[in-house]
Design goal:
alpha+beta, 35% strand, Alpha-Beta Plaits, four-stranded antiparallel β-sheet
Protein backbone atom coordinates (compact mmCIF):
# COMPACT_ATOMS: atom_id res chain seq x y z
CA UNK A 1 0.00 0.00 0.00
CA UNK A 2 1.16 3.52 -0.73
CA UNK A 3 0.45 6.70 1.18
CA UNK A 4 -0.42 10.07 -0.25
CA UNK A 5 0.32 13.51 1.11
CA UNK A 6 -1.85 16.32 -0.18
CA UNK A 7 -0.91 19.86 0.82
CA UNK A 8 -2.93 22.94 -0.13
CA UNK A 9 -1.01 26.20 -0.25
CA UNK A 10 -1.96 29.85 -0.63
CA UNK A 11 0.19 31.98 -2.90
CA UNK A 12 1.07 35.37 -1.47
CA UNK A 13 3.01 37.76 -3.71
CA UNK A 14 4.22 36.18 -6.90
CA UNK A 15 2.77 33.77 -9.41
CA UNK A 16 2.13 30.08 -9.76
CA UNK A 17 4.97 29.95 -12.30
CA UNK A 18 7.35 31.28 -9.65
CA UNK A 19 6.16 28.56 -7.28
CA UNK A 20 6.79 25.81 -9.84
CA UNK A 21 10.34 27.00 -10.49
CA UNK A 22 11.07 27.12 -6.77
CA UNK A 23 9.50 23.70 -6.10
CA UNK A 24 11.46 22.05 -8.92
CA UNK A 25 14.71 23.52 -7.67
CA UNK A 26 14.22 22.90 -3.94
CA UNK A 27 11.34 20.72 -2.82
CA UNK A 28 11.63 18.06 -5.52
CA UNK A 29 15.32 17.26 -4.80
CA UNK A 30 14.55 17.24 -1.06
CA UNK A 31 11.78 14.69 -1.54
CA UNK A 32 13.77 12.63 -4.07
CA UNK A 33 16.53 12.21 -1.48
CA UNK A 34 14.02 11.05 1.15
CA UNK A 35 13.42 7.36 1.92
CA UNK A 36 10.16 6.04 0.51
CA UNK A 37 9.60 8.84 -2.01
CA UNK A 38 7.67 7.72 -5.08
CA UNK A 39 6.20 10.75 -6.82
CA UNK A 40 5.48 14.47 -6.60
CA UNK A 41 2.98 16.58 -8.48
CA UNK A 42 2.12 20.26 -8.17
CA UNK A 43 -1.01 21.78 -9.67
CA UNK A 44 -2.62 25.20 -9.70
CA UNK A 45 -6.12 24.89 -8.21
CA UNK A 46 -7.14 28.53 -7.97
CA UNK A 47 -5.97 32.02 -8.78
CA UNK A 48 -3.92 32.20 -5.59
CA UNK A 49 -3.57 28.56 -4.56
CA UNK A 50 -1.89 25.32 -5.53
CA UNK A 51 -1.75 21.75 -4.32
CA UNK A 52 1.23 19.47 -3.84
CA UNK A 53 0.53 15.73 -4.13
CA UNK A 54 3.24 13.25 -3.21
CA UNK A 55 3.23 9.49 -2.72
CA UNK A 56 5.26 7.52 -0.21
CA UNK A 57 5.81 3.87 0.73
CA UNK A 58 4.71 4.31 4.37
CA UNK A 59 2.66 6.69 6.47
CA UNK A 60 5.72 7.51 8.57
CA UNK A 61 7.57 8.63 5.44
CA UNK A 62 4.61 10.80 4.42
CA UNK A 63 4.56 12.32 7.91
CA UNK A 64 8.29 13.02 7.68
CA UNK A 65 7.73 14.65 4.28
CA UNK A 66 5.22 16.99 5.91
CA UNK A 67 7.82 18.15 8.41
CA UNK A 68 10.50 18.48 5.72
CA UNK A 69 8.19 20.48 3.45
CA UNK A 70 7.19 22.78 6.32
CA UNK A 71 10.83 23.46 7.15
CA UNK A 72 11.70 24.02 3.49
CA UNK A 73 8.82 26.48 3.04
CA UNK A 74 9.74 28.30 6.26
CA UNK A 75 13.37 28.65 5.17
CA UNK A 76 12.89 29.31 1.46
CA UNK A 77 9.41 30.50 0.57
CA UNK A 78 7.26 31.68 3.46
CA UNK A 79 6.98 35.15 1.94
CA UNK A 80 5.77 33.61 -1.32
CA UNK A 81 3.36 30.88 -0.18
CA UNK A 82 1.95 29.33 2.99
CA UNK A 83 0.41 25.99 3.91
CA UNK A 84 -3.37 26.09 4.32
CA UNK A 85 -4.15 22.37 4.86
CA UNK A 86 -2.29 19.08 4.90
CA UNK A 87 -3.74 15.58 4.51
CA UNK A 88 -2.17 12.12 4.62
CA UNK A 89 -3.97 8.88 3.82
CA UNK A 90 -3.53 5.39 2.47
CA UNK A 91 -4.42 4.88 -1.17
CA UNK A 92 -7.26 2.36 -1.18
CA UNK A 93 -7.38 2.56 -4.98
CA UNK A 94 -4.01 3.12 -6.62
CA UNK A 95 -4.26 2.42 -10.35
CA UNK A 96 -2.62 3.94 -13.39
CA UNK A 97 -2.12 3.14 -17.07
CA UNK A 98 0.52 0.51 -16.25
CA UNK A 99 -2.23 -1.46 -14.51
CA UNK A 100 -4.37 -1.35 -17.67
CA UNK A 101 -1.51 -2.63 -19.82
CA UNK A 102 -0.98 -5.70 -17.64
CA UNK A 103 -4.64 -6.40 -16.76
CA UNK A 104 -5.20 -8.65 -19.77
CA UNK A 105 -2.14 -10.83 -19.18
Amino acid sequence: MRYIRIALYDIKPGTYGDVVVKAKAGLLPLFQASPGFQSLGVAEVGKDSFVSVSTWQTRGQADTATAKAAEWVKTNSREQFTLRDNYIGDLAIDADTRDLATAGR
